Amino acid sequence: MRPLGAASAGASQAASLVAVPGGGAVPRHVAIIMDGNGRWAKKRFLPRFAGHKAGVDAVRNVTRAARAMGIEALTLYAFSSENWRRPAEEVSDLMGLLRHFIRSDLDELTRENVRLCVIGDYHAFSPDLVAMVDDAIARTAANTGPLLAIALNYGAHAELVLAARRLAERARDGVLDPASIDAAMVEGELDTRDLPPLDLMIRTSGEQRLSNFLLWQAAYAELLFVDTLWPDFDGDALAEAVAAFGVRQRRYGGL
Ligand code: IPE
Ligand code: IPE
Ligand code: MG
Fold first, then answer.
1. Would the pTM of this model clear 0.90, i.e. be above it?
2. What is the mean pLDDT of the chain?
């Protein structure tokens, strides 16, 4: 596995941005908290499921747009480790939509050279879904194009706890000197270790919180909160977000 390394912060991260004609820069790695499906449905007097279903269409549109813009990695928060608190029927609907998405979109992703990966402990899902996800990851593993990371049963606290536990076990076994643990080593234990540094985090629906998403990785990411409900977020909305990112000045603590 290629660790991200603490060296990825600061100057090298700034240098990683792709300049685009007309100014601004395209972020290498964009993460989205896709929020507001329920409110989108409620506004239309529809069941929450209808909002989640429309949310899948938005995923398709936005991943296509991200590819067209040359965004190297897109990470989508699809199911948080706290979303198990929802009614069983809604959890099951969300799992059903994930199955549907894999069935309907995997061919296109494979064809488009997208490499699919998952962050979070999706092994807590039902065995058939785990098998589908594993198959989707395997089918796109040799692809060399953009990365699409789906956060499934993801929570930043759990991710960091696991990282701490793994490092502690190696220290206990005498193969790791605790004094040598640094940021790069922690990053090497995170689910995002194979992704570029996070440049831009977007949350839709007007909520302004991170809800346990990529807490470590967001240290120097630009945050963008938009009022648009996720099912209404499209390629143009992503282009606007990228343009807003392009005029941000990132300083990483320097001047
Ligand atoms: C986001 O939409 C989708 C998931 C969390 C899976 P919500 O379902 O949270 O929609 P709101 O926040 O109730 O509108
Ligand atoms: C965050 O949205 C999780 C996902 C988008 C998958 P939530 O709707 O679950 O977040 P809270 O509960 O409003 O913080
Ligand atoms: Mg929500």
1. yes
2. 93
